[in-house]
Amino acid sequence: MGCDRNCGLIAGAVIGAVLAVFGGILMPVGDMLIERTIKKEVVLEEGTIAYQNWVKTGTEVYRQFWIYDVQNPQEVVANSSKIKVKQRGPYTYRVRYLAKKNITHDPENHTVSFLQPNAAIFEPSLSAGTENDTWTVLNLAVAYNNTADGVYTVFSGKDNISQVAIIDTYKGKKNLSYWPSYCDMINGTDAASFPPFVEKTRVLRFFSSDICRSIYAVFGAEINLKGIPVYRFVLPSMAFASPLQNPDNHCFCTETVISNNCTSYGVLDIGRCKEGKPVYISLPHFLHASPDIAEPIEGLTPNEDEHSTYLDVEPITGFTLRFAKRLQINILVKPAKKIEALKGLKRNYIVPILWLNETGTIGDEKAEMFRKRVTGKINLLGLVEITLLSVGVVMFVAFMISYCACRSKKVK
Fold first, then answer.
1. What pLDDT is stored for residue 203 in this prediction?
2. pTM for the predicted model, two decimal places
3. Distance CA 155, CA 70 (A)
4. So where does this one cross the membrane (predicted)?
5. pLDDT of 310-364, one tens digit each?
6. Angle between helices 376-411 and 2-41 (to 10 degrees)
7. Which residues in the chain land under pLDDT 50?
8. pLDDT number for residue 397
């Protein structure tokens, strides 16, 4: 009887040990299987999850415009007073609903080329007025429709997953021809996705044709998006800092008068890529801009929550599941003897014209699919690993304690 009991206890301990060992082995094996599956599914080729969502996004993307209405134009012309503005809006359009076109695969270079068609549909229910409220908004819609961005050529990741979606060339070039030195380089992806297995320490680099340059985002917080853990990466203030604050930005300062010898910050002169027009871009309401930029303008209320740019990236796949791109368009107004309205000005102004908020969030249906095919399987595997390891350890310890106790009684 004692032998049977001892044998049973030993058998229980052995089973526990086997379960614990199996759970421990399953961890690296499971991680390897997950990594292999992810590497396969994020490649930009027909049949993968990434390709399906890359060709035509399942996310509804909206672009909202707020127009700055100048309240005191005569006073400014006569006295060079501060410009008083009041924002009007939003005027909302649905954008990015068309599939990429002219998709061409290069199996030798492992690249994919495409055009991103632009189109806009006005959404009255999400707007503060109609398209006829202001000619500026109407012209924006007309200018945006029936155009295309590109040609982009990106790496498919077939031969090197760490390169997937990274831009090789834009309009056939590896550089922009707008900026001196390395500022002219086209870096990173288009921000729709990034190479997988994103860590918090990674700097996410991406190119935006809207601002005529490459830029970057850094980790900000962990977020739960519709049951999917994501990392929020934010555009830091250092991206638009002056060369004094961030020496890496020295080649984005291309003149010394308006920039006060390159000491002003928070705005970027993009005239070179806008046919020489005096266009400056910034964050809305001059968020993170130097005081000399915002001082001549009244009515601005910069707010980090409403005016910052961020990307919510699922770290395992590198897919951007939610984003908010906030951008302000400004023009330089300065004294001009040959223009009647400007010849009396005594100062330069960087005048805000409008700001936009382009947002997109993964839909409920896509989120459910993502949970089932990606995060759900990973979580289940992790639960099985922990369960086997925990149960195995508990069984082994419990049965060994019982066995030792029985042996001790038998000796006495």
1. 97
2. 0.85
3. 46
4. 7-29, 380-406
5. 999 999 999 999 999 999 999 999 888 888 778 888 889 999 999 999 999 998 8
6. 160
7. 1-2, 16, 19, 23, 26, 135-138, 380-381, 383, 388, 392
8. 53
For 319, left (φ over 0), alpha (ψ -120 to 50), or beta?
beta
Q: Which amino acid is at 272?
A: R
Tokens 């910069």 identify what position? 302
- One-letter amino acid for residue 226 of the chain: K
